[in-house]
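Work through what follows:
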Amino acid sequence: DGVGKDANADRTADPHNADDAALGAAVYLCGNGRDLTKEPQLRAAIFQYNRSHAYVANVRGWIDQYTAAAKSPALANVTGDARTVIEAALAQRGVPYSWGGGTAKGPSTGICCSPSGKSGARIKGFDCSGLTTYAYAQAGIRLPRTAAAQAGVGQRIPASAGTRALKPGDLVFYAYAPGRDSTIYHVGIYVGSGQMVNAARPGTVVRLDAVDAMSGYAGGARLL
């Protein structure tokens, strides 16, 4: 009752009215001076609303989906196969991460388990190399299934060249020991302006990320 609000100016703070309920929830979540742009405070606010860690994870997943869907990179100068690959990857924004998920035909049920112990066995979606496999297939390019193997295809762009050497459509790699391709653990698709389409980890969705969102930048590969 303490945060009930009349958002539609009918002089009644009605929790069953969508406008009133939304404003009341916003006041409740932002109470005590919380800054919801800061991840720890956002999680604390959601947990206060419903004291369940599973609920917090579910809400954060929806936030990621809406955020990913709202962003669109500038592709005016990107043409041909590079544009085909990028648009195919971008069309999968909001699809859940699934360890072992994704084929040349699209999202698929993953396998158990990731190195962190997270299972993809009940999730239909993509892992990082599943997403790249799918996107490049739309341009008629068949990639090997793992990120480390994909680093051996096309023209290798060394990490020493920096991220400015990347062009839209390039694969972007990350390694536990940069310089040793056998330790590559992750791959994304560069879209320009320092961004990539990324299936980052269990609990996230396909989304746009900065190329420095993952650790151990290991260069790229140009296939287009």
The chain has a mean pLDDT of 88. Residues 173 and 187 are 5 Å apart (CA to CA). The chain is about 30% helix and 15% strand.
